[in-house]
Amino acid sequence: MHQSADVMLSVAQVVECTQAEGPGRRFAVWVQGCPLRCVGCCNPEFLPQTGGEAVRVEDLAAELARVSAAQDLEGLTLLGGEAFAQATGCAALAAAAHQLDLSVMVFSGYTLAQLRQQQDPGVQSLLAATDILVDGPYDHTQPETHRRWIGSSNQQVHYLTDRCDPADPRWLQPNTLELRLIDGELTVNGFPAAQAKLLWRRPPSLKSGGLRMED
Questions:
Q1: CA distance linking residue 178 with residue 18, whole number of Å
Q2: Closest CA to 130 of 115, 120, 119, 142
Q3: pLDDT at residue 195 is higher than 50
Q4: Which residues of 152-167 are buried (b: 16+ CB within 10 A; e: fewer)?
Q5: pLDDT tens digits, residue range 155-185?
Q6: Would you tell me the crossing angle of helices 57-71 and 87-99 to the nearest 10 degrees?
Q7: Cα–Cα distance between 17 and 111 in angstroms, integer?
Q8: What does the angle CA 82 – CA 86 – CA 88 come to, to the nearest 5 degrees?
Q9: Burial (Cβ within 10 Å: 0-12, 13-18, ≥19) of residue 213
Q10: Cβ–Cβ under 8 Å, residues 52 and 86
């Protein structure tokens, strides 16, 4: 069991209840920072190591528990940035999700084979706490047109536990785009049409107003 006390994450964005980032209602956390530089990355502002907000995993876990009780969540989704670049913190949050009987879905630019070869205990802990892994670098020349929630056709979906069903028909439904206006801030997440990306603009702070788009 991972202890979340005093473990920190650099967080770029949180959407507390979304159906655009995996099966069912999910608590989605985008971490800040990614060592990969995929051409056409959907979240270029999440690539630098700086720019996120330092958040205690313990606080995120408490918020996850609150939202899960109120919204009947199905799971936690970790995106980025690169979740495995902050593997220890993400593993602690994933463990908290499992304690709530929630599934854990992780998007990574690394392949499963690459992750399994890494010697970092945090990486192995996060893998062990992952139910669904979507792996591989985003390739803008191979857009995915059939599978929901997948950026490019080279990326693979790995069911690492039996918590989730590979035959779940929701994977074949159309992608969705979600917009929220909260306290003067418009947040957009999901998989938008290409023309929607003209709206792309994020403020430097999680608390300031503006428009954010995540996919």
A1: 8
A2: 115
A3: no
A4: beebebbebeeebeee
A5: 999 999 999 999 999 988 877 777 777 677 7
A6: 30
A7: 27
A8: 140
A9: buried
A10: no
